[in-house]
Amino acid sequence: MELNNSMKIILDDILKGKKSVALGGHVRPDGDCVGSCMGLYHYLREQYPDIGTDVYLEEVPEAYSIIKGTDEVKTQTDGSAVYDLFICLDCGDAQRLGFSSPLFENAKETLCIDHHISNDAFADYNYIVPDASSTSELVYNMVDRDKISLASAEALYMGIVHDTGVFQYSCTSPETMEIAAELMRKGINGSEIIDKTYYEKSYIQNQILGRALLESMLIMDKKCIVSVIRQKSMKFFQAQPSDLEGIVSQLRQTKGVEVAIFLHEISPQQFKVSLRSKGKVDVSEIAQYYGGGGHVRAAGVTMEGSSHDVINNITARIALQLKHEEEQDDEQ
Ligand code: 5GP
Ligand code: MN
User: Fold this and answer.
1) C-alpha to C-alpha distance for 326 and 118, rounded to whole angstroms
2) Beta bridge partners of 20
3) What is the phi/psi pair of residue 7, to 5°?
4) Which residues, including other chains, have CB under 8 Å from residue 75's CB and lie 6 or more apart?
């Protein structure tokens, strides 16, 4: 079932009679995933005290620990619990829930709140708005805004900040700015949230970013930039996968480049691929083609083979799209 209007009433309706609710987000949780889950977690705990609400996420990256309640996140489950409702946030498909997916399967009812264009509405109730800046913005739309607490506002603000690249990306709408303003009026310290969760980098993060930039290469007539970080570099710098966040956005900033491709070797012959586009290329189409997903300008996928194979496969799809675009330009 698709949800669109009067989100508040529908959330109330869905929660009616429920005694237990679980929230879950995607593997390797990012700022919007943590922000939307924690924002809704605080809201449900405060406004629906009779419902037992739990939140399940993989280990929350250190930078996001300024968000209240992240120490209450459950990082493990034996999968046997049966919740009345499982709410899946910022997650384009059920597999991306990772360790919490058995809880999704077992739950009596499921609700998905998401903004990925690749989302195929896999829950019982689906509130999916691909144009929305972030899942955190959608959570804001679903709740009674007058009842949003400071803790919830801080979490939602962080989510919006992260998925808009600090209000920079084209997904930032006037409504996004209005919501951010409302959240500011709750008394949050917006500049601290931006600085501590988005811009501040550990020494390790900066070193590995430097390595990725230094070893990056321009390809496809300088329309693409590509960089690879291998397991041996991760070991050398003692880096965690979450330390790589932000590298692909930095690569994308290169002048003249249309697409940035970042490969992280997660095991021999297996790469987590992050794609970012400036707009001409729909990277979600490419990620979906190879089994991943995401947004038009930011997408990801896990691919097997050598780094050369992976890059060749990705660039072949980019070339197809660029060729198609040139043909359309010629026709005009
Ligand atoms: P990132 O490159 O930062 O990991 O992800 C960019 C976007 O693509 C995010 O919105 C993320 O949720 C989505 N994404 C990344 N990897 C995958 C994947 O393997 N499958 C799907 N469905 N989406 C992904
Ligand atoms: Mn998101």
Assistant:
1) 25
2) 52
3) -55, -35
4) 56, 57, 58, 59, 99
CB 37 within 8 A of CB 11: no
Sorted by sequence, the CB contacts under 8 Å of residue 149 that are 6+ apart come out as 42, 43, 46, 186
The tokens for 146 are 């007058």
Mean pLDDT score of the chain, rounded to an integer? Answer: 96
**What's the mean pLDDT in 197-201?**
97
Q: List strands edge to edge, sheet with 85-89.
A: 52-56, 20-24, 85-89, 109-114, 125-128
- What tokens were used for 129? 């708005």
Q: Which residue among 33, 116, 264, 277 has the greatest number of ligand 1 atoms within 8 angstroms of its CB, and so is best to mutate? A: 116
- 3-class secondary structure, 119: coil
Q: Are the CB atoms for 317 and 139 separated by under 8 Å?
A: no
User: Which tokens belong to 10?
Assistant: 């529908």
- pTM of the full structure: 0.94
The CA 104 to ligand 1 mean position distance, Å, reads 20
Looking at the chain, the number of H-run helices and the number of E-run strands are 12, 11
What is the SS3 assignment for 298? strand
Q: What is the number of the ligand 1 atom nearest to the C-alpha of 274?
A: 2
Q: Which atom of ligand 1 is nearest to the CA of 301?
A: 19
Mutate-to-test residue for ligand 1 from 96, 138, 169, highest number of ligand atoms within 8 A of CB = 96
Torsion angles phi and psi, residue 189, rounded to 5: -95, 85
| Whether the predicted pLDDT of 29 surpasses 80 | yes
Higher pLDDT, 283 or 120: 283
Task: Give, in degrees to the nearest 5, the angle at Cα 304 between 298 and 308.
Answer: 80
189: how many CB neighbours lie within 10 A of its CB? Answer: 14
CA atoms of 270 and 67, how far apart (whole Å): 33
Q: By alpha-carbon position, which residue is closest to atom 19 of ligand 1?
A: 301
For ligand 1, atom 21, name the residue with the nearest CA.
293
